[in-house]
Specification:
The chain has about 130 residues and is an alpha+beta fold. About 25% of the residues lie in helices and about 30% in strands. About 5% of the residues have low confidence.
């Protein structure tokens, strides 16, 4: 599936491919898979700019993402908790194909051609 971060106007900020291990996933599982993958990628090969869904707490938010120290290890579980809280408090909305996720437990059919868009409504910081 393709993961995209978008603005309210539809502009793409960041996009990457995420492998799906199941044909049916809840919104929570999609968020978890995304957070886990982006944090693992960052921790394996730290870059100065972290372009994740949730900016780490100690990071300086920049136009291109969150600026973090290269030695800073990010905790994916903490990022995941913050992302779920942000979803539930309307910090972002999630589009899976042509459907908007209304709850974290809503089920979606996903495959290699599924497009998932995360539209941030407010900056997400935590973890």
């Amino acid at each position: 599936m393709t993961i995209t971060d978008s603005t309210l106007t539809g502009a793409t900020l960041h996009s990457f491919t995420l492998e799906s291990l199941a044909e049916q996933m809840t919104a929570r599982e999609i968020i978890r898979a995304r957070i886990y993958q982006e944090v693992q990628d960052h921790n394996r090969k730290p870059l100065e700019i972290f372009r994740g869904l949730v900016s780490p707490t100690a990071a300086e938010v920049t136009l291109n993402g969150a600026k973090v120290r290269k030695t800073h290890v990010i905790d994916w579980e903490q990022q995941f908790r913050h992302a779920c809280q942000a979803f539930e408090s309307n910090g972002f909305f999630l589009l899976v194909g042509d459907r908007q996720a209304e709850s974290l437990d809503e089920q979606f059919t996903v495959g290699v051609d599924t497009e998932v868009s995360f539209v941030k409504l407010t900056p997400l910081v935590g973890g």
